[in-house]
Every structure is written in structure tokens, then in C-alpha cells.
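[Discussion] Sanity-checking designs against the backbone

I'm trying to build intuition for which residues belong where. Below is a C-alpha cell string of 81 positions. I'd appreciate it if someone posts a full sequence so I can compare it with mine line by line.
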């Protein structure tokens, strides 16, 4: 999913069953980059450093829980604000 190809569209979001609730929302790195208005590479660096926790699905796919992204933004807002 390219940022250019998706300009103006909402990210496609994967929904999966959750043990703690009805749905677990998982975002691709492209989705996160689109939402944060940064490059995919920036998101890759954040996940690689552990700054933004992620899940590895299979050998090469990485996902970020929507709730983790929201917590990440809350922490950044508190730290920067």
C-alpha cells in the first residue's frame, strides 16, 4: 500500500479476534506512516528501536496495535507538551 496511491483515503485496517474484547485492530507500517504523516522508514526505525512496540506476523510482516499507537501518541503529547 503506497502513500501516494492512498492519498486522501483512510488506511485499510485488519481486524482480528481479541481475548480481551470483540476486536483487535492491527495497522500495517504503511497505515501508521499515513496516520502520522511520516515516511514508512521513520516508522520502521521507531519499531526497530522499540520506541513504538510492534508485532511480527510471519517472517516479514509487522503490525502495530491501534491501542499501542494511541498510547505512543499520548506519551509523546505529554512529553512534548
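Best answer:
Here's mine. Compare freely.
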Amino acid at each position: 500500500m503506497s502513500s501516494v496511491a492512498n492519498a486522501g483515503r483512510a488506511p485499510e485496517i485488519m481486524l482480528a479476534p481479541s481475548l480481551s474484547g470483540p476486536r483487535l485492530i492491527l495497522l500495517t507500517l504503511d497505515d501508521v506512516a499515513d496516520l502520522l504523516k511520516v515516511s514508512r522508514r521513520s516508522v520502521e526505525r521507531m519499531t526497530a528501536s522499540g520506541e513504538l512496540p510492534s508485532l511480527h506476523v510471519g517472517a516479514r510482516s509487522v503490525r502495530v496495535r491501534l491501542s499501542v499507537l494511541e498510547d505512543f501518541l499520548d506519551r509523546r503529547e505529554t512529553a512534548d507538551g
